Amino acid sequence: MMRVEYPRPQFRRESFLILNGEWSFAFDDENSGLEESWYEHSKAFHQTIQVPFVYQASLSGIDDRSVHDIVWYQKGFDWEKRKNKKTLLHFGAVDYQADVYVNDRYVGQHIGGHTSFSFDITNFLVDGQQSITVRAWDPHDDETIPRGKQFWEAESRGIWYTNSTGIWQTVWLEEVDTRHIEKVAFTPNLDEGSVLLSVTVPKQALGSVLRYKISFKDTVIVEDQTTLLSPCTKRSVDIYNHKIFRTNFHDHGWTWSPEHPNLFDVSLELLVDGEVTDCVESYFGMRKIHVENGMIFLNNQPYYQKLILDQGYWPEGLLTAPSDAAFIKDIQLAKEMGFNGCRKHQKVEDPRYLYWADKLGFIVWGECASAPVYTSDAAARLTQEWVEIIERDYNHPSIVTWVPLNESWGIPDIHLNTQQQSFSRSIYHYLHALDTTRLVISNDGWEMTETDICAIHNYSHGEKEEVKKYRYFKDSLADVEGLIQHPPGKWATFAKGFAYQNQPILLTEFGGIGYEIGGQTGWGYTSAGNEAEFLDDYGRIMDAIYSSRALWGYCYTQLADVEQEINGLLTYDRQPKVSLEAIKEINDQYHPERIFIGNQQK
Protein backbone atom coordinates (compact mmCIF):
# COMPACT_ATOMS: atom_id res chain seq x y z
CA MET A 1 0.00 0.00 0.00
CA MET A 2 1.49 3.33 -1.08
CA ARG A 3 0.43 6.83 -0.07
CA VAL A 4 0.20 8.71 -3.38
CA GLU A 5 -2.07 11.69 -2.64
CA TYR A 6 -0.73 15.26 -2.81
CA PRO A 7 0.73 15.79 0.68
CA ARG A 8 0.22 19.56 1.08
CA PRO A 9 -3.37 20.34 0.05
CA GLN A 10 -3.26 23.93 1.35
CA PHE A 11 -0.41 24.86 -0.99
CA ARG A 12 -0.74 22.91 -4.24
CA ARG A 13 1.40 22.95 -7.36
CA GLU A 14 1.32 20.81 -10.48
CA SER A 15 4.97 19.78 -10.75
CA PHE A 16 5.88 17.21 -8.10
CA LEU A 17 7.05 13.62 -7.61
CA ILE A 18 5.99 11.38 -4.72
CA LEU A 19 8.95 9.35 -3.45
CA ASN A 20 6.97 6.97 -1.25
CA GLY A 21 7.22 3.25 -1.85
CA GLU A 22 10.20 0.93 -1.65
CA TRP A 23 13.44 2.26 -0.17
CA SER A 24 16.58 0.41 0.88
CA PHE A 25 16.82 0.23 4.67
CA ALA A 26 19.25 -0.66 7.45
CA PHE A 27 19.48 -0.66 11.23
CA ASP A 28 22.61 0.98 12.65
CA ASP A 29 22.72 -0.36 16.20
CA GLU A 30 26.50 0.11 16.43
CA ASN A 31 26.29 3.72 15.16
CA SER A 32 28.87 2.93 12.52
CA GLY A 33 27.05 4.36 9.50
CA LEU A 34 28.62 7.79 9.63
CA GLU A 35 32.15 6.50 10.12
CA GLU A 36 31.69 3.98 7.32
CA SER A 37 30.03 6.56 5.04
CA TRP A 38 26.87 4.59 4.32
CA TYR A 39 25.56 7.57 2.38
CA GLU A 40 28.22 6.88 -0.29
CA HIS A 41 27.26 3.29 -1.06
CA SER A 42 24.48 0.73 -0.68
CA LYS A 43 26.45 -2.19 0.77
CA ALA A 44 25.01 -1.78 4.29
CA PHE A 45 21.38 -1.69 3.14
CA HIS A 46 20.25 -5.30 3.47
CA GLN A 47 16.51 -4.69 3.84
CA THR A 48 13.76 -2.80 2.06
CA ILE A 49 11.01 -0.72 3.62
CA GLN A 50 7.77 0.80 2.37
CA VAL A 51 7.92 4.54 3.04
CA PRO A 52 6.19 6.36 4.73
CA PHE A 53 5.56 3.55 7.21
CA VAL A 54 8.00 3.11 10.10
CA TYR A 55 9.80 -0.21 10.53
CA GLN A 56 7.63 -1.00 13.58
CA ALA A 57 4.46 -0.96 11.41
CA SER A 58 3.28 -3.98 9.43
CA LEU A 59 2.68 -1.85 6.33
CA SER A 60 6.42 -1.08 6.23
CA GLY A 61 7.07 -4.69 5.28
CA ILE A 62 9.40 -5.11 8.27
CA ASP A 63 7.01 -5.17 11.25
CA ASP A 64 9.72 -5.23 13.92
CA ARG A 65 8.79 -3.89 17.38
CA SER A 66 12.31 -4.11 18.84
CA VAL A 67 14.17 -0.92 19.72
CA HIS A 68 16.62 0.51 17.18
CA ASP A 69 17.69 4.10 17.78
CA ILE A 70 19.39 4.72 14.43
CA VAL A 71 18.04 3.72 11.02
CA TRP A 72 19.12 4.53 7.47
CA TYR A 73 17.15 4.89 4.23
CA GLN A 74 18.29 5.13 0.62
CA LYS A 75 16.43 5.55 -2.66
CA GLY A 76 17.38 6.17 -6.27
CA PHE A 77 15.14 8.22 -8.56
CA ASP A 78 15.11 9.89 -11.96
CA TRP A 79 14.95 13.67 -11.97
CA GLU A 80 16.29 16.20 -14.45
CA LYS A 81 17.78 19.51 -13.35
CA ARG A 82 16.45 22.39 -15.43
CA LYS A 83 17.67 25.94 -16.00
CA ASN A 84 16.13 28.63 -13.75
CA LYS A 85 14.35 25.94 -11.75
CA LYS A 86 14.83 24.83 -8.15
CA THR A 87 14.26 21.32 -6.86
CA LEU A 88 12.83 21.12 -3.34
CA LEU A 89 12.98 17.91 -1.34
CA HIS A 90 10.11 17.73 1.18
CA PHE A 91 9.60 15.48 4.20
CA GLY A 92 6.21 15.33 5.90
CA ALA A 93 7.78 14.17 9.17
CA VAL A 94 10.78 12.14 10.36
CA ASP A 95 11.05 11.03 13.98
CA TYR A 96 13.24 12.37 15.49
CA GLN A 97 16.44 13.83 13.98
CA ALA A 98 17.02 13.53 10.25
CA ASP A 99 20.30 13.97 8.40
CA VAL A 100 19.85 14.07 4.63
CA TYR A 101 22.32 13.31 1.84
CA VAL A 102 21.81 13.67 -1.92
CA ASN A 103 24.21 11.99 -4.31
CA ASP A 104 26.69 11.27 -1.51
CA ARG A 105 26.76 14.89 -0.32
CA TYR A 106 25.42 16.20 2.96
CA VAL A 107 22.39 18.47 2.49
CA GLY A 108 21.24 19.30 6.00
CA GLN A 109 19.59 18.34 9.25
CA HIS A 110 16.16 18.70 10.79
CA ILE A 111 15.37 18.17 14.49
CA GLY A 112 11.80 17.46 15.54
CA GLY A 113 9.72 14.37 14.97
CA HIS A 114 6.32 15.79 14.11
CA THR A 115 6.69 18.67 11.66
CA SER A 116 7.44 19.11 7.97
CA PHE A 117 10.71 20.37 6.51
CA SER A 118 12.34 20.94 3.13
CA PHE A 119 15.74 21.34 1.50
CA ASP A 120 16.71 23.02 -1.75
CA ILE A 121 18.74 20.25 -3.41
CA THR A 122 19.23 21.93 -6.80
CA ASN A 123 23.00 22.21 -6.44
CA PHE A 124 23.28 18.58 -5.31
CA LEU A 125 21.71 17.09 -8.45
CA VAL A 126 23.78 15.28 -11.10
CA ASP A 127 23.20 14.11 -14.64
CA GLY A 128 21.37 10.79 -14.73
CA GLN A 129 19.91 9.01 -11.73
CA GLN A 130 19.80 10.72 -8.35
CA SER A 131 20.14 9.20 -4.88
CA ILE A 132 18.75 10.23 -1.49
CA THR A 133 20.05 8.87 1.82
CA VAL A 134 18.48 9.63 5.19
CA ARG A 135 19.88 8.85 8.63
CA ALA A 136 17.19 9.01 11.32
CA TRP A 137 18.11 9.11 15.00
CA ASP A 138 15.40 8.54 17.59
CA PRO A 139 16.92 7.75 21.02
CA HIS A 140 14.34 5.81 23.00
CA ASP A 141 15.83 6.78 26.39
CA ASP A 142 16.23 10.55 25.89
CA GLU A 143 13.54 12.09 28.08
CA THR A 144 14.05 15.61 26.71
CA ILE A 145 12.50 14.58 23.38
CA PRO A 146 8.76 15.23 22.85
CA ARG A 147 7.51 11.66 22.38
CA GLY A 148 3.87 11.83 23.51
CA LYS A 149 2.31 8.37 23.73
CA GLN A 150 5.31 6.58 22.20
CA PHE A 151 6.66 4.01 24.63
CA TRP A 152 10.37 3.68 25.33
CA GLU A 153 10.19 -0.13 25.58
CA ALA A 154 9.61 -2.69 22.84
CA GLU A 155 6.16 -3.84 24.07
CA SER A 156 3.46 -1.25 24.66
CA ARG A 157 1.48 -1.22 27.91
CA GLY A 158 -0.72 0.99 30.04
CA ILE A 159 -1.42 4.27 28.27
CA TRP A 160 1.73 3.94 26.13
CA TYR A 161 1.82 2.77 22.51
CA THR A 162 4.37 1.36 20.08
CA ASN A 163 7.27 3.66 19.29
CA SER A 164 7.71 5.12 15.79
CA THR A 165 11.19 5.68 14.40
CA GLY A 166 12.18 7.40 11.19
CA ILE A 167 10.17 8.53 8.17
CA TRP A 168 6.43 8.42 8.90
CA GLN A 169 4.94 10.92 6.46
CA THR A 170 5.27 11.41 2.73
CA VAL A 171 8.58 12.22 1.01
CA TRP A 172 8.28 14.17 -2.23
CA LEU A 173 10.01 16.41 -4.75
CA GLU A 174 8.77 19.67 -6.18
CA GLU A 175 10.10 21.85 -8.98
CA VAL A 176 9.73 25.63 -8.71
CA ASP A 177 11.03 28.61 -10.58
CA THR A 178 13.76 30.62 -8.86
CA ARG A 179 11.06 33.31 -8.68
CA HIS A 180 8.32 31.55 -6.76
CA ILE A 181 5.92 31.85 -3.84
CA GLU A 182 7.47 30.51 -0.65
CA LYS A 183 4.40 30.61 1.60
CA VAL A 184 1.00 32.18 1.99
CA ALA A 185 -1.07 32.89 5.09
CA PHE A 186 -4.75 33.81 5.39
CA THR A 187 -6.04 35.64 8.47
CA PRO A 188 -9.83 36.05 8.35
CA ASN A 189 -11.50 39.01 10.00
CA LEU A 190 -15.11 37.97 10.32
CA ASP A 191 -16.30 41.19 11.92
CA GLU A 192 -14.96 43.30 9.06
CA GLY A 193 -15.79 40.76 6.36
CA SER A 194 -12.22 40.68 5.10
CA VAL A 195 -9.19 38.41 4.94
CA LEU A 196 -5.56 39.44 5.38
CA LEU A 197 -3.46 37.87 2.62
CA SER A 198 0.25 37.47 3.45
CA VAL A 199 2.59 36.25 0.72
CA THR A 200 6.30 35.52 1.16
CA VAL A 201 8.73 35.32 -1.77
CA PRO A 202 12.54 35.07 -2.15
CA LYS A 203 14.55 38.16 -3.07
CA GLN A 204 14.76 36.97 -6.70
CA ALA A 205 11.00 37.50 -6.99
CA LEU A 206 10.98 41.13 -5.83
CA GLY A 207 9.49 43.36 -8.49
CA SER A 208 7.30 40.59 -9.85
CA VAL A 209 3.51 40.83 -9.92
CA LEU A 210 1.26 38.75 -7.69
CA ARG A 211 -2.09 38.01 -9.29
CA TYR A 212 -4.70 36.43 -7.06
CA LYS A 213 -8.27 35.24 -7.43
CA ILE A 214 -10.65 34.31 -4.61
CA SER A 215 -13.74 32.26 -5.43
CA PHE A 216 -16.69 30.94 -3.51
CA LYS A 217 -18.56 27.95 -4.95
CA ASP A 218 -17.21 28.69 -8.45
CA THR A 219 -18.15 32.38 -8.25
CA VAL A 220 -15.23 34.81 -8.43
CA ILE A 221 -15.40 37.13 -5.42
CA VAL A 222 -12.15 39.05 -5.78
CA GLU A 223 -9.61 39.25 -8.58
CA ASP A 224 -6.68 41.64 -8.27
CA GLN A 225 -2.93 42.00 -8.53
CA THR A 226 -0.08 43.83 -6.81
CA THR A 227 3.63 44.39 -7.36
CA LEU A 228 5.81 42.69 -4.75
CA LEU A 229 8.27 45.20 -3.29
CA SER A 230 9.23 43.36 -0.09
CA PRO A 231 9.83 39.70 0.83
CA CYS A 232 6.50 39.63 2.71
CA THR A 233 3.53 41.43 1.19
CA LYS A 234 0.26 41.85 3.07
CA ARG A 235 -3.09 42.90 1.64
CA SER A 236 -6.45 43.19 3.35
CA VAL A 237 -9.04 41.86 0.93
CA ASP A 238 -12.72 42.75 1.25
CA ILE A 239 -14.70 39.52 0.94
CA TYR A 240 -18.28 40.44 1.75
CA ASN A 241 -18.47 43.42 -0.57
CA HIS A 242 -19.49 41.07 -3.36
CA LYS A 243 -23.18 41.19 -4.27
CA ILE A 244 -23.89 37.58 -3.28
CA PHE A 245 -23.01 38.41 0.34
CA ARG A 246 -24.56 41.84 0.76
CA THR A 247 -28.11 40.69 1.52
CA ASN A 248 -27.19 38.28 4.31
CA PHE A 249 -23.84 39.52 5.61
CA HIS A 250 -25.05 39.46 9.21
CA ASP A 251 -26.30 35.87 8.88
CA HIS A 252 -22.71 34.72 8.28
CA GLY A 253 -24.07 32.26 5.74
CA TRP A 254 -20.64 31.96 4.18
CA THR A 255 -18.63 31.20 7.31
CA TRP A 256 -16.88 27.95 8.17
CA SER A 257 -18.41 25.70 10.84
CA PRO A 258 -18.90 21.95 11.32
CA GLU A 259 -22.49 22.38 10.19
CA HIS A 260 -21.59 24.51 7.15
CA PRO A 261 -17.94 24.00 6.15
CA ASN A 262 -17.82 26.78 3.57
CA LEU A 263 -14.42 27.33 1.99
CA PHE A 264 -13.05 30.01 -0.32
CA ASP A 265 -10.77 28.80 -3.11
CA VAL A 266 -7.68 30.87 -3.86
CA SER A 267 -5.46 30.91 -6.93
CA LEU A 268 -2.14 32.79 -6.76
CA GLU A 269 0.13 33.47 -9.71
CA LEU A 270 3.53 35.14 -9.88
CA LEU A 271 4.27 37.01 -13.09
CA VAL A 272 7.60 38.33 -14.39
CA ASP A 273 7.37 40.43 -17.57
CA GLY A 274 3.90 39.01 -18.14
CA GLU A 275 5.09 35.39 -17.86
CA VAL A 276 3.70 33.15 -15.11
CA THR A 277 6.63 31.77 -13.12
CA ASP A 278 4.62 30.13 -10.32
CA CYS A 279 1.05 29.08 -9.65
CA VAL A 280 -0.30 27.94 -6.29
CA GLU A 281 -3.80 26.76 -5.37
CA SER A 282 -5.06 27.15 -1.81
CA TYR A 283 -8.16 27.85 0.25
CA PHE A 284 -9.32 29.39 3.53
CA GLY A 285 -12.42 29.59 5.71
CA MET A 286 -14.05 32.63 7.28
CA ARG A 287 -14.02 31.47 10.90
CA LYS A 288 -13.79 33.24 14.23
CA ILE A 289 -13.36 31.62 17.65
CA HIS A 290 -13.34 33.60 20.89
CA VAL A 291 -14.39 33.51 24.53
CA GLU A 292 -16.69 36.00 26.21
CA ASN A 293 -18.64 36.01 29.47
CA GLY A 294 -17.54 32.48 30.31
CA MET A 295 -18.70 31.09 26.96
CA ILE A 296 -17.08 29.93 23.70
CA PHE A 297 -18.29 31.64 20.55
CA LEU A 298 -17.88 30.31 17.01
CA ASN A 299 -18.54 33.00 14.41
CA ASN A 300 -20.00 35.23 17.14
CA GLN A 301 -22.57 32.64 18.23
CA PRO A 302 -22.36 30.52 21.44
CA TYR A 303 -21.09 27.10 20.42
CA TYR A 304 -21.15 23.87 22.42
CA GLN A 305 -18.30 21.58 21.43
CA LYS A 306 -18.91 17.81 21.39
CA LEU A 307 -15.42 16.44 20.85
CA ILE A 308 -13.96 12.96 20.70
CA LEU A 309 -10.41 12.15 21.86
CA ASP A 310 -8.46 10.79 18.89
CA GLN A 311 -5.00 9.25 19.31
CA GLY A 312 -4.40 8.99 15.55
CA TYR A 313 -3.09 5.39 15.55
CA TRP A 314 -3.91 2.59 13.11
CA PRO A 315 -3.13 -1.14 13.58
CA GLU A 316 -1.23 -1.50 10.29
CA GLY A 317 0.46 1.90 10.13
CA LEU A 318 0.71 3.11 13.76
CA LEU A 319 1.07 6.92 13.50
CA THR A 320 0.72 6.76 9.71
CA ALA A 321 -2.76 6.31 8.26
CA PRO A 322 -2.90 3.43 5.78
CA SER A 323 -4.63 5.65 3.21
CA ASP A 324 -6.25 9.01 2.66
CA ALA A 325 -9.60 7.24 2.90
CA ALA A 326 -8.77 6.33 6.53
CA PHE A 327 -8.83 10.03 7.46
CA ILE A 328 -12.20 10.50 5.80
CA LYS A 329 -13.62 7.44 7.53
CA ASP A 330 -12.56 8.60 11.00
CA ILE A 331 -14.18 11.99 10.54
CA GLN A 332 -17.35 10.61 8.99
CA LEU A 333 -17.83 7.99 11.71
CA ALA A 334 -17.34 10.60 14.43
CA LYS A 335 -19.88 12.92 12.80
CA GLU A 336 -22.33 10.05 12.42
CA MET A 337 -22.11 9.57 16.20
CA GLY A 338 -22.99 13.21 16.81
CA PHE A 339 -19.54 14.64 17.52
CA ASN A 340 -18.62 17.96 15.92
CA GLY A 341 -14.87 17.75 16.45
CA CYS A 342 -11.91 16.01 18.00
CA ARG A 343 -8.92 16.61 20.20
CA LYS A 344 -5.91 15.09 18.44
CA HIS A 345 -4.13 13.70 21.47
CA GLN A 346 -0.34 13.96 21.82
CA LYS A 347 0.13 13.98 18.07
CA VAL A 348 0.60 16.50 15.27
CA GLU A 349 -1.62 15.04 12.58
CA ASP A 350 -0.90 14.71 8.87
CA PRO A 351 -2.02 17.78 6.82
CA ARG A 352 -4.25 15.46 4.80
CA TYR A 353 -6.38 14.83 7.90
CA LEU A 354 -6.67 18.57 8.51
CA TYR A 355 -7.65 19.07 4.88
CA TRP A 356 -10.54 16.63 5.25
CA ALA A 357 -11.55 18.22 8.56
CA ASP A 358 -11.73 21.53 6.69
CA LYS A 359 -13.71 20.02 3.81
CA LEU A 360 -16.11 17.84 5.83
CA GLY A 361 -16.62 20.24 8.73
CA PHE A 362 -14.92 18.94 11.85
CA ILE A 363 -13.37 20.96 14.67
CA VAL A 364 -9.79 20.04 15.62
CA TRP A 365 -7.87 20.84 18.78
CA GLY A 366 -4.21 20.73 17.76
CA GLU A 367 -1.85 19.16 20.26
CA CYS A 368 1.85 18.32 20.25
CA ALA A 369 3.61 15.36 21.83
CA SER A 370 4.99 16.12 25.28
CA ALA A 371 8.39 15.32 26.75
CA PRO A 372 8.42 13.18 29.92
CA VAL A 373 10.53 15.58 32.00
CA TYR A 374 11.26 19.27 32.40
CA THR A 375 14.71 20.53 31.46
CA SER A 376 15.87 23.58 29.54
CA ASP A 377 16.53 21.31 26.54
CA ALA A 378 13.04 19.79 26.73
CA ALA A 379 11.46 23.24 26.91
CA ALA A 380 13.48 24.44 23.92
CA ARG A 381 12.64 21.37 21.86
CA LEU A 382 8.91 21.70 22.52
CA THR A 383 8.90 25.42 21.78
CA GLN A 384 10.67 24.95 18.44
CA GLU A 385 8.19 22.28 17.37
CA TRP A 386 5.32 24.67 18.11
CA VAL A 387 6.86 27.33 15.88
CA GLU A 388 6.86 24.82 13.01
CA ILE A 389 3.39 23.48 13.83
CA ILE A 390 1.78 26.91 13.63
CA GLU A 391 3.64 27.84 10.46
CA ARG A 392 2.51 24.63 8.76
CA ASP A 393 -1.10 24.51 9.96
CA TYR A 394 -2.02 28.19 10.35
CA ASN A 395 -4.45 28.26 7.42
CA HIS A 396 -6.69 25.36 8.48
CA PRO A 397 -10.06 26.75 9.65
CA SER A 398 -10.89 23.46 11.39
CA ILE A 399 -8.22 24.06 14.05
CA VAL A 400 -9.76 26.28 16.73
CA THR A 401 -7.59 25.52 19.78
CA TRP A 402 -3.93 24.81 20.51
CA VAL A 403 -3.01 22.48 23.40
CA PRO A 404 0.73 22.84 24.12
CA LEU A 405 0.70 20.96 27.46
CA ASN A 406 -1.30 18.03 28.81
CA GLU A 407 -1.77 16.73 32.38
CA SER A 408 1.50 18.30 33.55
CA TRP A 409 3.53 15.98 31.28
CA GLY A 410 6.97 17.55 30.99
CA ILE A 411 6.11 19.97 33.82
CA PRO A 412 5.54 17.52 36.71
CA ASP A 413 6.20 20.06 39.48
CA ILE A 414 4.17 22.91 38.03
CA HIS A 415 1.84 23.22 41.01
CA LEU A 416 4.58 24.83 43.12
CA ASN A 417 7.55 25.22 40.80
CA THR A 418 7.69 28.79 39.49
CA GLN A 419 10.09 27.88 36.66
CA GLN A 420 7.65 25.36 35.23
CA GLN A 421 4.79 27.78 35.79
CA SER A 422 6.77 30.36 33.83
CA PHE A 423 7.18 27.90 30.96
CA SER A 424 3.44 27.19 30.90
CA ARG A 425 2.65 30.89 30.90
CA SER A 426 5.33 31.72 28.34
CA ILE A 427 4.23 29.11 25.80
CA TYR A 428 0.61 30.21 26.28
CA HIS A 429 1.57 33.79 25.40
CA TYR A 430 4.04 32.70 22.71
CA LEU A 431 1.37 30.79 20.80
CA HIS A 432 -0.91 33.80 21.02
CA ALA A 433 1.96 35.95 19.73
CA LEU A 434 2.30 33.64 16.71
CA ASP A 435 -1.41 33.09 16.14
CA THR A 436 -4.21 35.50 17.10
CA THR A 437 -6.97 33.40 15.51
CA ARG A 438 -7.19 30.52 18.01
CA LEU A 439 -7.63 29.72 21.69
CA VAL A 440 -4.79 28.29 23.79
CA ILE A 441 -5.00 25.96 26.80
CA SER A 442 -2.06 26.20 29.18
CA ASN A 443 -2.17 22.66 30.67
CA ASP A 444 -5.09 20.50 29.64
CA GLY A 445 -6.47 18.48 32.54
CA TRP A 446 -5.35 20.22 35.72
CA GLU A 447 -2.79 22.58 37.32
CA MET A 448 -3.51 25.29 34.76
CA THR A 449 -1.90 28.71 34.77
CA GLU A 450 -3.09 31.35 32.32
CA THR A 451 -5.51 29.74 29.89
CA ASP A 452 -8.39 30.56 27.53
CA ILE A 453 -10.33 27.43 28.47
CA CYS A 454 -10.58 25.72 31.83
CA ALA A 455 -10.02 22.14 30.63
CA ILE A 456 -10.70 19.44 33.21
CA HIS A 457 -10.18 15.65 33.14
CA ASN A 458 -12.42 13.43 35.24
CA TYR A 459 -12.76 9.63 34.95
CA SER A 460 -14.35 9.14 38.36
CA HIS A 461 -17.86 8.22 37.19
CA GLY A 462 -17.34 4.64 38.41
CA GLU A 463 -19.13 1.44 37.44
CA LYS A 464 -22.92 1.43 37.27
CA GLU A 465 -23.29 -0.24 40.65
CA GLU A 466 -21.06 2.36 42.34
CA VAL A 467 -24.00 4.67 42.97
CA LYS A 468 -22.33 7.00 45.47
CA LYS A 469 -19.29 7.46 43.25
CA TYR A 470 -21.45 8.31 40.26
CA ARG A 471 -23.60 10.69 42.30
CA TYR A 472 -20.49 12.55 43.44
CA PHE A 473 -19.25 12.65 39.81
CA LYS A 474 -22.55 14.13 38.64
CA ASP A 475 -22.79 16.60 41.50
CA SER A 476 -19.20 17.80 41.00
CA LEU A 477 -19.99 18.64 37.36
CA ALA A 478 -23.21 20.45 38.15
CA ASP A 479 -21.82 23.92 38.76
CA VAL A 480 -18.66 26.00 38.62
CA GLU A 481 -17.84 25.56 42.30
CA GLY A 482 -17.93 21.77 42.05
CA LEU A 483 -15.81 21.69 38.91
CA ILE A 484 -13.15 24.08 40.21
CA GLN A 485 -13.06 23.28 43.91
CA HIS A 486 -13.55 19.49 43.83
CA PRO A 487 -11.13 17.94 41.33
CA PRO A 488 -11.37 14.13 41.11
CA GLY A 489 -7.73 13.28 41.83
CA LYS A 490 -4.70 14.60 43.66
CA TRP A 491 -4.14 17.53 41.30
CA ALA A 492 -5.68 20.95 41.80
CA THR A 493 -7.54 22.54 38.92
CA PHE A 494 -5.13 25.49 38.93
CA ALA A 495 -1.48 25.70 39.92
CA LYS A 496 -0.71 27.59 43.11
CA GLY A 497 -0.97 31.32 42.59
CA PHE A 498 -3.53 30.98 39.78
CA ALA A 499 -7.31 30.88 39.97
CA TYR A 500 -10.39 30.48 37.84
CA GLN A 501 -11.09 33.71 35.90
CA ASN A 502 -14.51 32.95 34.41
CA GLN A 503 -13.08 30.98 31.50
CA PRO A 504 -15.41 28.58 29.67
CA ILE A 505 -15.20 25.16 31.37
CA LEU A 506 -14.99 22.00 29.30
CA LEU A 507 -14.61 18.40 30.44
CA THR A 508 -11.83 17.44 28.05
CA GLU A 509 -11.25 13.82 29.13
CA PHE A 510 -13.77 11.41 30.65
CA GLY A 511 -15.56 8.17 29.86
CA GLY A 512 -13.27 5.52 28.40
CA ILE A 513 -15.70 2.62 28.82
CA GLY A 514 -13.87 -0.63 28.15
CA TYR A 515 -15.77 -2.95 25.81
CA GLU A 516 -14.03 -5.93 24.23
CA ILE A 517 -15.27 -7.44 21.00
CA GLY A 518 -13.35 -9.82 18.78
CA GLY A 519 -11.32 -11.41 21.54
CA GLN A 520 -8.82 -8.62 22.15
CA THR A 521 -7.73 -8.22 25.76
CA GLY A 522 -7.14 -4.82 27.28
CA TRP A 523 -8.47 -2.23 29.67
CA GLY A 524 -10.84 0.70 30.06
CA TYR A 525 -11.74 3.07 32.90
CA THR A 526 -14.98 1.12 33.40
CA SER A 527 -16.27 -1.95 31.61
CA ALA A 528 -19.27 -3.25 29.71
CA GLY A 529 -20.02 -6.84 28.78
CA ASN A 530 -22.33 -6.30 25.81
CA GLU A 531 -23.80 -3.59 23.60
CA ALA A 532 -26.80 -2.95 25.83
CA GLU A 533 -24.56 -2.48 28.89
CA PHE A 534 -22.26 -0.20 26.95
CA LEU A 535 -25.07 2.06 25.72
CA ASP A 536 -26.61 2.14 29.17
CA ASP A 537 -23.30 3.18 30.74
CA TYR A 538 -22.59 5.71 27.99
CA GLY A 539 -26.03 7.24 28.49
CA ARG A 540 -25.49 7.36 32.25
CA ILE A 541 -22.19 9.23 31.86
CA MET A 542 -23.53 11.63 29.25
CA ASP A 543 -26.56 12.40 31.42
CA ALA A 544 -24.14 13.75 34.05
CA ILE A 545 -22.43 15.88 31.40
CA TYR A 546 -25.61 17.33 29.96
CA SER A 547 -27.09 17.94 33.40
CA SER A 548 -24.28 20.38 34.14
CA ARG A 549 -25.11 24.07 34.02
CA ALA A 550 -21.43 24.97 33.96
CA LEU A 551 -19.91 22.95 31.10
CA TRP A 552 -19.52 24.47 27.64
CA GLY A 553 -18.49 21.28 25.93
CA TYR A 554 -16.67 18.01 26.35
CA CYS A 555 -14.19 15.58 24.84
CA TYR A 556 -15.08 11.90 25.30
CA THR A 557 -12.35 9.24 25.59
CA GLN A 558 -12.08 7.90 22.90
CA LEU A 559 -12.73 7.36 19.19
CA ALA A 560 -11.08 3.95 18.71
CA ASP A 561 -9.26 1.23 20.61
CA VAL A 562 -5.47 1.55 20.51
CA GLU A 563 -3.39 -1.56 21.08
CA GLN A 564 -4.07 -2.60 24.72
CA GLU A 565 -6.67 0.12 25.27
CA ILE A 566 -10.14 -1.20 24.47
CA ASN A 567 -12.03 1.90 25.56
CA GLY A 568 -12.94 3.21 22.10
CA LEU A 569 -16.34 3.63 20.48
CA LEU A 570 -14.77 1.85 17.50
CA THR A 571 -12.42 -1.11 17.35
CA TYR A 572 -8.78 -0.52 16.46
CA ASP A 573 -9.59 -1.27 12.81
CA ARG A 574 -12.49 1.22 12.93
CA GLN A 575 -15.47 -1.12 13.17
CA PRO A 576 -18.35 0.28 15.27
CA LYS A 577 -18.74 -1.57 18.57
CA VAL A 578 -22.31 -0.40 19.01
CA SER A 579 -24.98 1.31 16.94
CA LEU A 580 -23.72 4.65 15.68
CA GLU A 581 -27.31 5.88 15.63
CA ALA A 582 -27.72 4.99 19.30
CA ILE A 583 -24.61 6.96 20.26
CA LYS A 584 -25.84 9.91 18.21
CA GLU A 585 -29.25 9.77 19.87
CA ILE A 586 -27.57 10.02 23.29
CA ASN A 587 -25.24 12.79 22.13
CA ASP A 588 -28.17 14.70 20.66
CA GLN A 589 -30.51 14.34 23.64
CA TYR A 590 -29.83 17.96 24.52
CA HIS A 591 -29.49 20.57 21.80
CA PRO A 592 -26.92 23.37 22.02
CA GLU A 593 -29.69 25.96 22.27
CA ARG A 594 -31.07 24.28 25.38
CA ILE A 595 -27.62 23.98 26.93
CA PHE A 596 -26.97 27.64 26.18
CA ILE A 597 -30.17 28.72 27.92
CA GLY A 598 -29.46 26.49 30.91
CA ASN A 599 -25.90 27.73 31.31
CA GLN A 600 -27.04 31.32 31.07
CA GLN A 601 -29.18 30.68 34.14
CA LYS A 602 -26.27 29.53 36.34
Number of helices: 10
Computed structural class = alpha/beta
Which shape, going by the Cα principal axes?
Answer: globular
Strand content: 25-35%
- The share of residues in helices is 10-25%
Parts with pLDDT < 50 across at least 5 consecutive residues: none
Average of the residue pLDDT scores: 94
Q: Could you describe the largest sheet, including whether it forms a barrel?
A: 8 strands, parallel
Rg result: 25 Å
**What is the first-to-last residue Cα distance?**
54 Å
Placed side by side, the strands forming the largest sheet appear as 27-26-25-24-23-32-29-28
The count of strands amounts to: 32
Describe the structure.
Helix 4 (376-393) packs parallel to helix 5 (418-434). By secondary structure, this protein is an alpha/beta fold. Helix content is 19%, strand content 29%. A hairpin with a 2-residue loop joins strand 7 and strand 8 (105-111). The protein is globular, with a radius of gyration of 25 Å.
How is this fold's topology laid out?
Elements: E1 16-18, E2 21-27, E3 47-51, E4 70-78, E5 85-91, E6 94-95, E7 97-102, E8 105-111, E9 117-120, E10 129-137, E11 166-167, E12 171-177, E13 183-189, E14 194-200, E15 209-216, E16 219-227, E17 232-238, H1 243-246, E18 264-272, E19 275-284, E20 289-292, E21 295-298, E22 301-302, E23 305-310, H2 324-336, E24 341-344, H3 351-360, E25 363-367, H4 376-393, E26 399-403, H5 418-434, E27 439-440, E28 454-457, H6 467-477, H7 480-485, E29 505-509, E30 513-514, E31 526-527, H8 531-547, E32 551-556, H9 580-587, H10 592-600
Helix pairs in contact: 2-3, 4-5, 6-8, 8-9
